[in-house]
Design goal:
Length: 202
């Protein structure tokens, strides 16, 4: 039996090119099963194992609160071992030929991390706030025009040129133009946190 396990180790290392950590995991699972059948069935012969013995081991592992994922990994190690025995013609049929893996819970795949979601939401909120400020500024400017709050002033409309005024240090490059004998407030380049439109000042 030791020769069989040694040959299996060499097979994993040399042919499969598995890492030492993976090889040790396979062999530890194999030794664990060997210990079980020795203690429960007084047998150490892994070459003459039937599926009922393996199923009994699976039940024992599940009763010990070992997760289905871990149980499947251990059975996968046994499968690899018995495939090796088949390949080397030490057995005729694998005792795990018709075995089906235990069901494992499906994990929810999240396309974005929590941090990424926060960043996207903050960007959306910022964009909507900016659009709202632009809309409020346009509506308030239009209202000022309709109510005649903005006086026609030659100093403001000096030869039809554009002048800059500032509102609460949040507004810059506010353009004023003359159209059909009236005064029209155009768009500002910085509209954040604008609360209302007041009459234009020199």
């Amino acid at each position: 039996m030791e020769n069989s396990k040694t040959a299996f180790r060499n097979y994993l290392q040399l042919e499969k090119k598995y890492s030492p950590h993976t090889v040790n995991a396979y062999l530890n699972d194999l030794i664990s099963f060997e210990t079980y059948i020795n203690s429960e069935f007084d047998s150490e012969d892994l070459l003459n194992v039937n599926y009922s013995l393996i199923r009994s081991w699976i039940v024992t592992l599940v009763d010990a609160q070992i997760s289905n994922t871990s149980v499947n990994r251990k059975i996968s190690s046994l499968k690899s071992y018995y495939k090796f025995l088949l390949k080397t013609k030490q057995i005729v049929i694998s005792p795990l030929l018709k075995h089906k893996s235990l069901k494992t819970p499906k994990t929810l795949q999240i396309p974005f991390s929590e941090k990424e979601l926060d960043e996207v939401l903050n960007l959306i909120i910022y964009t909507l706030s900016l659009l709202l400020c632009r809309s409020l500024f346009f509506c308030s400017s239009l209202l000022c025009l309709v109510l005649g709050i903005l006086p026609e002033n030659d100093e403001i409309l000096h030869n039809g040129s554009l002048r800059q005024v500032f509102l609460r240090r949040e507004l810059s490059s506010l353009s004023v133009a003359k159209q059909d004998g009236g005064v029209v407030c155009l768009e500002s380049s910085n509209l954040s946190r604008l609360s209302s439109c007041t009459h234009c000042v020199n």
